[in-house]
Design goal:
The protein is mostly beta strands and 722 residues long. The chain has one domain: Maltoporin, Chain A (Beta Barrel).
């Protein structure tokens, strides 16, 4: 939300009245009881034991050991999410190598993520293996309480999923029926007074063939200055397993958000990163908790629902068919007033503001049909996967911002805000109905031979269609339509060798194809992005402790990147190269002692651009160094039995505030703390984020638009099972 506004709304508000370009992302039969073995512990979609996951479907679409996937994969399970006290999905990924989470601070309505230097929120977010595509404000929100695990596949994944973020993807895995009795309730409150209640209820039918699960959460109250409201979701699911070979799961969700916006973002560089000095007078820095919207009109509303299924049948000959599908729809309405740099007509401490709203309807339908089988040819064992998938996305949107007035920019005092001033009236600059469809055919062969050789081969062809209908706006009384058909191949080849001591070195090469939405300065629709990644690394699964260690080095080039020709127009002449190293370790020292560590170092460069002065520069937002470590220990024995203490350190390196690399955002080291107590079937936890309450800027996207990181926050939670 915040990045999008900075890119489109601010520009639209600054131009004189003219056509604004906008882009932002039968008879009954008595059945015999069936004994079901779930995927607990080391399953590919089930609960993670402690902090160490051993299997994943995200990197191959098959239940594969993580060490056998020729790309770096990270998994954050339910235990780790709870240890961190994460209430949002992006909060849960702050200790993950290769991921820059919450770049725009604590945005309550969007999970913002960058992977290997590239924004993954729009086209790199998945739910149960199916894409949560978003464009402009037409995205889909996921609450972390409904998740079993969060998986991150780093690097291109076009060979498996079609168009997606080249830096990698995040796959949210839903809680689902596990043929066990579940009774769990938790409630909590934060230091601002926001209270929530969550529940997770499941069971199995008497005949053993049906299991259900119901998760939900409702939260309300204050969150930040001037921000309040409530939100909630409910996710029912049911699994039917008539025999050992067949499984059908239905998953549904309904989500509702009715809140105001929080502040702390869209603020200028001088006044956040450095002091605001005018005429020799130092006014200092803007309060991170300040909110410059208008409380009387500010709102954010979301109604969202989804329903889908997962079907699997295994034949006697080691072949399995699967079909997964989901339909999702969201209705989003937003009204707010956002800062837009220092005012040109007010006093030295006045901020200019944009009066903005949008009405957005988004719908998506996805289906993925697969067949998987095992074949032996001589000394080679094959796991073969072939599939056809289809993606449909539609957005119907109207965006409006304040009418341009060179004599009035909605000023408000940055240090002593007074609300209620007149606002320039909002008028539409974008009125659009857009549909994107994609059909893909893919195949994969995972080969094993010799004493430990592993080869992974992938190929895929995608065909994509884009139709855009632009309707009249305040600035243009005419309508227009555009359409485009694109297609391309993508591939991946990986080689690995498994040593008996748990060490698996690997190497891979992958190409990608990613259709993008927008037009260039000549009015032509953008071509798909494409590029290549080379990756080498080592994965280590120790024999003496439950752990997983990964070291990866990569070289990723992203081509056909839109670059600015003027303030409001782009040409597709850009190229960005991201190279780096990632280290990650997760260890369950014992059942009561968990440790994680991560390190990321990047070298990200603009290698081609319409502006020659930017070549060799580093793109804004993303820090090139990140590191973290966390620990959680539960005491056993005597009076202190059940007391736990945990916490972590996060280092976020410096980043650039502009692509010209003239202004820098300083590095910061943050500490988090957890204190807990569990006894029999109940427990209580206190999580403190940013323990020492450091004031810092998370990132800037130009010197007009900087975002404060989250200050110290307290989250107290009590939970029980029965």
């Amino acid at each position: 939300m915040k990045a999008l506004l900075a890119a489109s709304v601010a520009a639209a508000a600054m131009i004189p009245p003219m056509a604004a370009f906008a882009q932002s992302v039968q008879t009954s039969t008595q059945l015999e009881p069936v004994v079901v073995e779930g995927e607990a512990g080391d399953g590919a979609t089930g609960p993670v034991k402690g902090v160490v996951a051993k299997k994943s479907r995200t990197g191959s679409k098959t239940a594969t050991d993580i060490k056998d996937i020729p790309q770096s994969v990270s998994v954050v399970g339910r235990q780790e999410i709870d240890d961190q006290g994460a209430q949002k999905a992006d909060e849960a990924l702050r200790y993950t190598a290769g991921v820059f989470a919450q770049p725009f601070g604590p945005d309550s309505d969007t999970n913002w993520l960058f992977i290997r230097g590239f924004q993954a929120t729009a086209d790199g977010t998945y739910m149960d293996g199916l894409q949560l595509f978003s464009y402009a404000f037409g995205g889909f929100y996921v609450d972390s309480f409904g998740l079993e695990r969060i998986e991150v596949l780093k690097g291109p994944a076009s060979v498996l999923y079609g168009g997606s973020n080249p830096g990698g993807l995040v796959n949210y895995v839903s809680k689902r029926p596990d043929f066990e009795r579940t009774r769990y309730v938790e409630t909590g409150v934060n230091d601002a007074g926001n209270v929530y209640l969550g529940f997770d209820i499941g069971d199995v039918a008497k005949d053993g063939a049906v299991s259900y699960r119901m998760t939900g959460k409702v939260a309300g109250g204050d969150t930040y200055s001037l921000q309040n409201g409530w939100r909630g979701f409910i996710s029912p699911s049911i699994t039917w397993k008539p025999d050992e070979a067949t499984t059908l799961t239905i998953l549904a969700n309904y989500s509702h958000i009715d809140e105001n916006h929080n502040g702390g973002s869209f603020l200028p560089y001088d006044g956040t990163v450095v002091d605001h000095i005018v005429g020799g007078v130092n006014y200092g820095r803007i309060d991170p908790d300040a909110n410059f919207t208008e409380p009387s009109i500010d709102l954010y509303k979301r109604e969202q629902g989804s329903v889908g299924y997962e079907f699997e049948h295994e034949f006697d000959n080691d072949w399995t068919v699967r079909s997964n599908a989901r339909f999702t729809a969201a209705d989003i309405n937003e009204v707010s007033v956002y800062p837009n740099g220092w005012s040109t007509i007010g006093g030295p401490t006045d901020l200019a503001r944009i009066n903005f709203d949008h009405d957005t309807m988004a719908k998506t339908f996805l289906v993925d049909n697969q067949i998987e089988g095992k074949v032996v040819t001589g000394p080679v064992e094959h796991t073969i996967l072939a599939g056809i998938d289809f993606k449909y996305y539609n957005i119907d949107q109207v965006q409006s911002s304040g009418l341009y007035d060179e004599n009035y920019d909605n000023p408000i005092d940055a240090f002593h805000p007074v609300y209620g001033s007149p606002l320039t009236p909002r008028v539409s600059y974008l009125n659009q109905d857009l549909t994107q469809k994609q059909l893909g055919f893919y195949a994969q062969d995972q080969l094993r031979f010799g004493d430990g050789w592993l080869v992974t081969l992938n190929g895929r062809y995608d065909r994509g269609w884009l139709d855009a209908d632009n309707r009249p706006t305040y600035y243009s009384s005419s309508s227009s339509s555009q359409s485009q058909t694109v297609g391309d191949f993508s591939g991946r080849a990986g080689l690995a060798y498994e040593f008996d001591n748990g060490v698996t070195p690997y190497a891979s090469i992958a190409t990608f194809f990613n259709p993008i939405i927008g037009t260039d300065a000549l009015g032509n629709l953008f071509k798909p992005e494409e590029g290549t990644q080379y990756e080498v690394g080592v994965k280590y699964v120790p024999t003496f402790v439950d752990g997983l260690f990964t070291v990866s080095l990569f070289d990723l080039t992203r081509q056909n990147v839109p670059s600015n020709v003027t303030l409001f127009t782009q040409m597709q002449t850009g190229e960005v190269r991201s190279r780096g190293v990632e280290l990650e370790g997760k260890v369950n020292v014992t059942d009561d002692f968990r440790v994680t560590g991560a390190f990321t170092a990047y070298d990200i460069d603009i290698t081609k651009d319409a502006n020659p002065a930017l070549i060799g520069k580093t793109p804004f937002i993303v820090p090139e160094i990140m590191a973290s470590a966390s620990i959680d220990y539960t005491f056993r024995g005597d009076w202190y039995d059940g007391i736990s203490i945990g916490g972590g350190l996060r280092y976020v390196g410096s980043s650039w505030a502009d692509n010209e690399n003239t202004a820098k955002v300083p590095a910061v080291t943050l500490a988090d703390l957890k204190l807990g107590y569990e006894k029999e079937n109940w427990g209580i936890d206190l999580n403190i984020t940013n323990l020492f309450d450091k004031t810092y800027v998370s990132s800037c996207q130009t010197t007009l638009t900087c975002s404060y990181g989250e200050g110290r926050s307290f989250k107290l939670k009590a939970h029980t099972t029965w």
